[in-house]
Amino acid sequence: MLLGINVETAQKGDGDTMKVLLWGNVRSDADYNFTVGAPAFISAATAGDMTSTAPTGTTGFVVRVVGYGNTADELFFCPENDWITLA
Fold first, then answer.
1. Cα(56)–Cα(44) distance, rounded to whole angstroms?
2. For the chain, domain boundaries
3. Are 24 and 11 a contacting pair, CB within 8 Å?
4. Where are the beta strands (DSSP E) in 1-87?
5. Residue 67 Ramachandran class (φ > 0 left, ψ -120 to 50 alpha, else beta)
6. What backbone torsions phi and psi does residue 37 show, to the nearest 5 degrees?
7. Could you read off the pLDDT of 49-86 as tens digits, one per residue?
8. What is the pTM of this model?
9. Cα gap 87→49, rounded to integer Å
10. Percent of the chain at pLDDT above 90?
């Protein structure tokens, strides 16, 4: 499954084009708080967020490494091809 991350700051409407990063570095001083060198996951607690803590306890949630923290504010976005679904 292909995964990408929006790299534009302005909100877009349905059908509008936007820039999507499929692999590489992305930075946000306001939104990120990663652990340097640790894997980053899609958050089960906050929709649309990422975290350095692997999700647990949310039945049916897909756990997938989406990258690694370069700094607290920068993510090396490189989604892995394998994942698990929490039971």
1. 8
2. 1-7+26-87
3. no
4. 5-6, 20-21, 24-27, 39-42, 50-51, 62-63, 65-69, 74-77, 84-85
5. left
6. 80, -10
7. 999 999 988 899 999 999 999 999 999 999 999 999 99
8. 0.85
9. 21
10. 69
